Amino acid sequence: MKHCGILIVLVLLLAGFWPAAGLAAPKTQVFVTVAPQAFLAERLGGEAVEVHILAAKGQDPHTFEPTPKQAAALAQAQLFFTVDIPFEKQLVAKVLAVNNPKLRVFDSTTGITRLAMTEEHHDGGHAAQAGRAKEQGEPDPHVWLAPANLMIMAQNMAAALIAAMPERRELLRRNLDSLLSELAALDQRLAASLAPHRGKTFYVFHPAFGYFAHAYGLTQEAVETGGKSPSPKRLAELVRQAKADRVRVIFVQPQFDAKAAATVARGIGGSVVSIDPMAREVPANLTAVAVAIDQAFRQQPATGGVVRP
What we know:
Largest sheet: 4 strands, parallel
Structural class: alpha/beta
Radius of gyration: 24 Å
Order of helices and strands: HEHEHEHEEEHHEHEHEHEH
Low-confidence stretches: 4-22, 119-136, 304-309
Shape: globular
Number of strands: 10
Helix content: 40-55%
């Protein structure tokens, strides 16, 4: 009888029917579109979630297309957090067509005020401007590049995770409170470090940093706009403009070919510096971006860093 009892216990353990055994529950399978969302999901869900990223580092979310393998894996997931990028709608339609009753789709950016992708034109560094904030079609998707937006995303994602895992409600709420405090403190640090440069313009290859610039009173000037490299005429205009602004640094992103940015940098006798809008560790990355922009402004002569009205 003793051996029989032991055997029954072992069977129950192997079958997963023994709650006191402390066996790990299956993780909630979560898909996100971009790496910064993965940071938020992991900070919120901890060990209870397994997070998968569609557009990994080095991939441009504007032109990204998921592989059949990714689509198949998404069809088996419980949660998909989107960022309102066009390809997501097509992907969701395909996945839902295979009748996955478990998959819940949530827009993690709900409640965020969208900015348009813009093209800035300045008259040789003077105050006169033409075509400021010209729309380039779709809104700027890089909402995660401002701490205030990250806080909204975190709240949206926490609500969805609580709905999917109500038994972990208290843990998720504690993690959310901790994350919101961290992001609020980050926002204060970045605002303090960039306050001396309010109104100034920094030059980037692709206009990915509109939300960051907007948050801290800066302006981004893009080398590439509308998904196209600039014409020789536009490159010459940018060189003249950058010289007038006494710019010494052109920022580039690893997702794009930066030859045009290098051409502008050579024309002004400056340098190219890489900053990544898609990095996974968002607080550390935004801190690095702020440091790079602060250093770029400090390299300019005292009369540089023209303030744009």
